[in-house]
Specification:
By secondary structure, the chain is α/β, with parallel strands linked by helices. The protein contains 9 helices and 14 strands.
Length: 345
């Protein structure tokens, strides 16, 4: 039987007690631009500096987004006295080095997904953050969205019963250009690290770390994984089936199927969207539908992770309670294993 009503989201709302931190951006690319717009329009946070190896590029980004300081190196930004938090938006191959530099400078750090290109690198970053006592977290924005809060409450309340199966999918048609970062192995390219991490983290959130990973897929001519299907075995005989591709745009939906109810998330499942909760035993029974009430669309949703980080800093935390460093490492270990199986097949 479905609950009489869906829970309200527990949100990290801007302007409700979190400190207004001063942020610096390393890597003024496309996602950094979306992040800057979301932070400016929907948070109480301040972006005060941006850095790139190209000072001209940093200056252009600063002019576009109303940022006061443009710098020509990572070192200048992470040691800048007016920066409290470093947002790392470089290619993922640079995440470890930039993250370590920011930690060594005593800054809090938000690192774009994937956190690093391997579980071993992620552990190195996590160990450094814990030793320094600063907050470091992956910018897995999906974990901080309103819908995720509601879903986590439903799971905690047992509204879906025993979870049997999770399905999740993320495919984008990325132009087959050998110079594109996703086709370049030296930049940490491939479908799994950049796109597949969303389905993998979703399964991890619902079912925990897998006890077995089985992956099939194919490689690009440049030597990165192009597409894959992962079948993960979890405790209590639960299973998740996850798909990713850089060859084609796919529905980008997700499903959690339990003994009492099935929760179906509309595309794009990892961004602000809606979902339906249906009874497991009656395909024609009453359904409950949830839609995001905040009015934030697509990349506006990046704002939630920035407000959450500021709240965690204000609370004296050094890790995100909804996406811990140990889970970040575990998710990358799953991807490590899947990538190895695909490369060897």
């Amino acid at each position: 039987m479905l609950p009489s009503r869906l829970p309200e989201p527990h949100l990290y709302l801007p302007g409700t007690g979190e400190p207004s931190l001063r942020w610096g951006i390393v890597g003024p690319g496309w996602i950094a631009g979306e992040f800057a717009k979301a932070v400016r329009n929907h948070t109480a946070q301040q972006i005060v500096a941006v850095a790139s190896r190209s000072l001209d590029r940093a200056s252009a980004f600063a002019a576009t987004h109303g940022i006061g300081v443009a710098l020509g190196s990572t070192e200048q930004l992470v040691t800048h006295p007016d920066v409290d938090v470093v947002y790392v938006a470089t290619p993922q191959s640079e995440h470890l080095a930039v993250g370590l530099a920011a930690i060594a400078a005593g800054k809090h750090v938000l690192i774009e997904k994937p956190f690093t290109v391997s579980a071993a690198e992620a552990k190195t970053l996590a160990d450094a953050a814990r030793a320094a006592g600063v907050l470091v977290m992956e910018a897995m924005w999906s974990r901080y969205l309103p819908q995720t809060s509601v879903i986590r409450q439903l799971l905690a309340d047992g509204a879906l019963g025993e979870i049997r199966t999770v399905f999740a999918d993320h495919g984008q048609a990325i132009t087959a250009d050998p110079e594109h970062r996703l086709y370049r192995p030296e930049l940490g390219g491939g479908a799994l690290l950049d796109l597949g991490i969303y389905p993998v983290q979703f399964a991890s959130m619902v079912l925990g770390a897998p006890t077995r990973v089985t992956a099939v897929g194919g490689m690009t001519k440049t030597g990165v994984d192009a597409h894959s299907t992962l079948v993960l075995t979890h405790e209590r005989d639960a299973q998740s089936t996850l798909h990713t591709s850089i060859l084609a745009r796919t529905p980008m939906t997700a499903v959690i199927a339990g003994s009492e109810a099935t929760l179906s998330i509309d595309g794009i499942f990892y961004a602000p969207t809606s979902f339906t909760l249906s009874p497991a035993g009656d395909p024609f029974g009453q359904e409950l539908t949830w839609s995001d009430p905040t009015g934030l669309k697509l990349f506006d949703g990046l704002s939630w992770e920035a407000t959450a980080l500021a709240r965690f800093v204000g609370e004296g935390r050094t890790e995100s309670p909804v996406h811990t460093l140990d889970e970040t490492i575990s998710i990358l270990a799953t991807i490590d294993e899947a990538r190895a199986q695909i490369a060897a097949s």
